[in-house]
Design brief:
6 helices; Arc Repressor Mutant, subunit A; 3-stranded antiparallel β-sheet; mainly alpha; 121 residues
């Protein structure tokens, strides 16, 4: 299941905070800050989708992520590779290295990452 753009924005805040009450979330939200009811609606949808849960303290709720950021984005990248690059990580890597204007240093760092992965296999 996927998050909408606004849900993803809130999820990024929750991942950074690790756990937070509504007032904490609103405090760190970038301007223009959404209405409390908007954030409450987003949290309800994200809870229903299984991305977020909460602990109740009286009438307050402390929200925390159920899904790790790395797992969420890994799934997205794999979907991107499948849907736009014929399920070929090589095609994706080729596109990525040619179209993102990486500096020589960034390309060398990427090469080092690939070399390290090759050593592990």
């Amino acid at each position: 299941m996927q998050l909408s753009k606004t849900e993803e924005e809130l999820m990024n805040i929750i991942w950074k905070q690790k756990k937070a009450f509504m007032k904490d979330l609103l405090e760190v939200y970038p301007e223009p800050k959404p209405a409390t009811t908007t954030v409450a609606t987003l949290l309800k949808r994200m809870t229903d989708k299984g991305f977020v849960s909460y602990k109740s303290y009286g009438r307050s709720r402390e929200y925390y992520p159920l899904v790790k950021k790395k797992a969420y984005f890994s799934k997205h990248v794999n979907g991107l590779i499948k849907n736009f690059f014929n399920d070929s990580p090589g095609q994706f890597a080729s596109f990525f290295t040619q179209e993102t204007n990486l500096s020589k240093e960034e390309l060398e760092d990427l090469k080092a990452l690939i070399d390290n992965q090759l050593k592990k296999k």
